[in-house]
Amino acid sequence: MAGPHTELKPDEEVEVGETEIARARHAMRERLREEGEGPMRPEIMEQAREVVTERRPPANPLAAWLFALSGWVALAGIAVFTILGFRLAFMIGDANPRTRFVDFMYDITGPLVYPFADMMRTRALDGGGVFEPATAIAMGVYLIAAILVVLMLWSLAPRRLAGHEIVVRRRRIVQQQ
To answer: How far apart are CA 31 and CA 11, in angstroms?
Structure first.
């Protein structure tokens, strides 16, 4: 990595970040301004060239696969959290269990809530609905589990999946007039 005070030889390739590029451009403008005795002369500025190219390393297939898998896990976690949220809202709102959608939601969320069913007692609410703590607990457990699995998959992936390097080549051509 080139430091802020590193002198570059013509056509030398150096790996730098965006901050270093901005510093180098500023330093080049200042040098041209000093040599031009006052404001930058356009004929010198036109002849000072900077070529910036980006190179992307070949993508690591394992890293790409792990990131894709983590995306699917996150999507599944969001889906489970959402359907459990519907169940909780339907229970609190005293939704009619004979309607097809509510019955369908109770059917698909029943197995998800079952492991937590006897942890706490279901409480009746004043408006006629019930608060089922097992659903709220299941939402928290499945959310935390999904986050942990996604973080684990990210930690297994190599770091430089989509990273890229920027190569800066500088060539300065000044013609005496």
So the answer is: 18
Q: Tell me, yes or no, whether 97 lies in a domain.
A: yes
Residue 88 lies in a domain: yes
Number of domains in the chain: 2
Instruction: Output b/e per residue, 23-55; b: 16+ Cβ within 10 A.
Output: bbeeeeeeebeeeeeeeeeeebeeebeeeeeee
108 and 74, same structural domain?
yes
Six-digit token string for 21? 């590029």
The order of strands in the sheet holding 14-16 is 14-16, 165-172, 48-55
Q: Other CB atoms closer than 10 Å to residue 142's CB: what's the count?
A: 17
Per DSSP, the three-state class of 95 is coil
pTM confidence score: 0.56
Judgement on whether residues 91 and 135 belong to the same structural domain of the protein:
yes
In this predicted model, what pLDDT tens digit does every residue of 113-136 receive, in sequence order?
A: 999 998 888 888 887 888 999 999
Residue 126 resides in a domain: yes
Determine the residue type at 54.
E
Helix (H/G/I), strand (E/B), else coil: 43? helix
Q: Retrieve residue 18's tokens.
A: 């965006």
